[in-house]
Amino acid sequence: MESYLQEFGEVKAKHSSEETLQKWRNLCGVVKNPKRRFRFTANLTKRCEAAAMRRTNQEKLRIAVLVSKAAFQFIQGVQPSDYVVPQEVTDAGFQICADELGSIVEGHEVKKLTFHGGVAGIAEKLSTSLKDGLNTESDLHTRRQEIYGINKFTESEQRGFWIFVWEALQDMTLMILGVCAFVSLIVGIATEGWPIGAHDGLGIVASILLVVLVTATSDYRQSLQFKDLDKEKKKIIIQVTRNGYRQKMSIYDLLPGDIVHLSIGDQVPADGLFVSGFSVLIDESV
């Protein structure tokens, strides 16, 4: 009997191998009520399921790590050296286009900025000087606005007067009055005939038209006043360095390559690169 039991190996109190436990279960298969007999031993089925789940999770984690490494290597491998200056920009005398400048500033692309030579390199490619600013007497100044555009957002078209008339007609009270006017016209003409029976209905229609015209006119004038006020609000005067000295100008006259001077409380007039200064804090929530 001892030699027979030795074939199954030793069953440890803890951490016995699955093979040994399975052999003992097979050996004691004739035991009455085996579930009760093995209630204090490991559940081999659940242990196998847990091991399979652990292997699956490890494989998923391994795949995620490999994908992350591949993505990181791809991002690192994308070099800004693929950038090609458009022909029209080169013909105008510059070495960088507006889209490339926008991607550097908006995307905080430090690698692109480094590739172009930093702030000094960008200034050189824009044909400007970090000390003297733009030279308005050169031929490049006239082409600069044609290549890079103006420092102004494209404004939406002003809504016409008839749009405000249509919006005024959407009032629920006026709709109810319109239905009442229609009913009054039908009943009045049917009972008293034309034109005596239509007086009440036409009076209601005239009142509706008067209210609509007054409301639409008021809203239209307010929209024009608000647009003019918004234009005045956006007329910001800034200090820039051009031709070697400081001067004041409107933000609408600002061009790529201008050296802008900011003080405490000033509004940043455009996206740009920080040249020099200290303790710069910008509130981007407004």
Structure notes:
The chain is mainly alpha-helical. It is 55% helix and 5% strand.
Provide keyphrases for this structure:
flat; 12 helices; 5% strand; 55% helix; mainly alpha; 286 residues
What is the rounded distance between the termini? 88 Å
Number of helices: 12
Order of helices and strands: HHHHHHHHHHHHEEE
Number of domains: 3
Widest β-sheet, arrangement of strands: 2-1-3
Strand content: 5-15%
Rg (C-alpha, Å): 40 Å
Low-confidence spans: none
> Which whole number gives the mean pLDDT?
79
Characterize this entry briefly.
Keywords: Magnesium, Membrane, Transmembrane, Transmembrane helix. With 286 residues, the chain is mainly α. Helices cover 55% and strands 5% of the residues.
Give a topology summary.
Layout: H1 2-6, H2 18-27, H3 34-37, H4 44-77, H5 87-92, H6 98-106, H7 110-115, H8 118-125, H9 140-148, H10 161-169, H11 172-192, H12 199-234, E1 237-242, E2 245-250, E3 259-261
Antiparallel strand pairs: 1-2, 1-3
Protein name: Cation-transporting P-type ATPase N-terminal domain-containing protein
Transmembrane segments: 172-190, 196-217
GO molecular function: calmodulin binding; P-type calcium transporter activity
